[in-house]
Amino acid sequence: MRIQNKIALIFTALSAGIIWALSVFVYFFASESISASFFHRLEVRSDIVGHAALQENKSLTSIYYDIKERHLGSLPYEKHRILPDPPDEATKKRLSLPSSFFEASKNEIPVRFFNHDTSYVVLRVARDNKRLMVVSSALDTYGMQEMGNLKNLLLIGFFIAMIFVFTFGKLFSNEIFKPIRRIIRNVKGINAHNLHQRLVVEPTDDDVEALSRTFNDMLDRLEVTFEMQNNFVSNASHEFRTPLTVVSGEAELGMSMPGLPESVKESFLNIYKEVEKLEHLTNSMLSLAQTGFDGKKEQWEGVRIDELILSVKEATDRIIPDNHVVIDFDNLPDDEGKLVVNGNLALLKAAFSNIVLNSCKYSDNKPVRIKISADAKYVIVEITDQGIGIPDREIGQIFVPFFRASNTGRYKGYGIGLPLTNNIIRMHQGKVEVHSRVQEGTRFITYLPYRYSHHS
User: Fold this and answer.
1) What is d(CA 386, CA 364) in angstroms, rounded to the nearest whole number?
2) 5-37 tens-digit pLDDT
3) Which strands, in side-by-side order, build the sheet including 368-374?
4) Where are the beta strands (DSSP E) in 255-375?
5) Which homologous superfamily does the CATH classification assign to the domain defined by 301-454?
6) Worst-scoring range by mean pLDDT, 50-64, 95-109, 247-261?
7) What is the DSSP letter of 126?
8) Cis omega (within 30 of 0) on the bond before 86?
9) Element (H, E) at 20
10) Strands lying side by side in the sheet with 79-84
11) Which of 4, 116, 197, 264 is the most buried (most CB within 10 A)?
């Protein structure tokens, strides 16, 4: 998940928690306020009914009820029960109210009780040594309706608020990450072709400015290092090859001189062979060094992988005429565009030739199978042999320059071919996977992004 989406979601979650807590707070206190107001209204009616019941003069009793009806009105499902004080056990059982309800009312303070949506009030009334207990009940339909409306309003408001919070959170995170995205775009555009390019540093005095300056400092160090390596490779290319060519020529001249003892000719031959090995090693090392950084000299173009593999097979036929390399075209994609990669033909040919020649060499020229396929992003080339394999503990080191597996002692090599191949594939934004079992064989799987995937 992208960071800006994560920030928007976290912002929304925090806001949801705060708004939900506020909604619960509002709902709870509104409920308490409505309930307290209804109980108070019920207590007033209960008090009037109690005092009316204590009046001996019936005309006064009717006045109490008349005041209640005219000025207070009746509550929904309002009931009043006049009980002796204290009530007997039979009366308590008939009302089906808990005994604690009556016990709490002994202190002459109205006791409120809520049960199954019905509000109850127990009130003690006394006059001229006469005492009685009034048990009043009513249903607050208006209050329940108000609370239902409030609950719906809070829920709808909560979800509407979440939509706005998430939308504004996205806009907020998008605005905050604009400088970061600009840095990402600029960094993606910097490679070996334009190491001199730098990020634009805006004087914002924040972490983005510090990040930009850090990238630029790193690029300064990389450019100096690459320039030093470039100079070394250019100079070494000339300085190494010239004396080796001279030594090789002198050895050839020495072998062609008549009248030399066989021991001397053999010495010249050994010198010639070792110089040839040294030339090959030097050229391989220079190629390895150049693929690490030098992107200026190569020409990049559209390369069809199936045609490239055919040219690799032709080159292998010239070097190892009796090879058993077979190309499997059965899994080629229907879309030919998925076979075209953006790259350098010579380098890619060298990379795949190294793998194929190694497969032939380390399998003692047993069958080697090359399969070409593609997925949603990459063109895939699998090269499988039936050779000596690579020990599990050593697979992770095969791309280290000059490393050779412990079971390759009887085969000639310098440990440069696979590192060179890996560098070339990585230059083309690809990757190499290796699966191997000792004495069963090795499978190299290369992934190269096809050409128009860069623009998709």
Assistant:
1) 9
2) 888 888 889 999 999 999 999 999 999 999 888
3) 325-328, 368-374, 378-384, 441-449, 431-437
4) 301-304, 325-328, 340-343, 368-374
5) Histidine kinase-like ATPase, C-terminal domain (3.30.565.10)
6) 95-109
7) E
8) yes
9) helix 3-54
10) 79-84, 130-139, 118-127, 111-115
11) 4
- CB atoms inside a 10 Å sphere around CB 183: 17
Is 314:354 a contact under the CB 8 Å cutoff?
no
Residue 253 identity (one-letter amino acid): L
Which residues are registered as beta bridge partners of 372?
381
Return the structure tokens found at 450: 């096809």
Alpha helices in 84-177 (DSSP H): 89-95, 99-104, 141-176
The tokens 């077979």 sit on which residue? 326
Check: CB of residue 358 under 8 Å from CB of residue 398: no
Q: State yes or no: pLDDT of 419 exceeds 60.
A: yes
Q: How far apart are CA 166 and CA 153, in angstroms?
A: 20
DSSP assignment letter at 339? G
Are 163 and 15 in contact, with CB atoms under 8 Å apart? no
Query: CA-CA distances (angstroms) from residue 218 to 210, 212, 215, 295, 401?
Result: 12, 10, 5, 19, 25
What is the per-residue pLDDT across 37-88, written as a single tens digit (0 to 9) for each? 888 888 888 888 877 777 766 666 666 666 666 667 778 888 888 877 777 6
Residue 252 makes CB contacts below 8 A (sequence gap 6+) with: 272
Q: What is the enclosing helix (H) or strand (E) of 444?
A: strand 441-449
Dihedral pair phi/psi, residue 223, rounded to 5°: -65, -40
The answer to whether 239 touches 285, Cβ cutoff 8 Å, is no
Q: What is the CA radius of gyration of the chain?
A: 46
Q: Which two tokens stand for residue 29?
A: 């206190």
The residue count for the chain:
456
Write out the two tokens for 185.
Answer: 């775009």
Taking domain 3-152, whether its CATH number is 3.30.450 is answered by yes
- For 335: left if phi > 0, alpha if psi spans -120 to 50, otherwise beta; the answer is beta
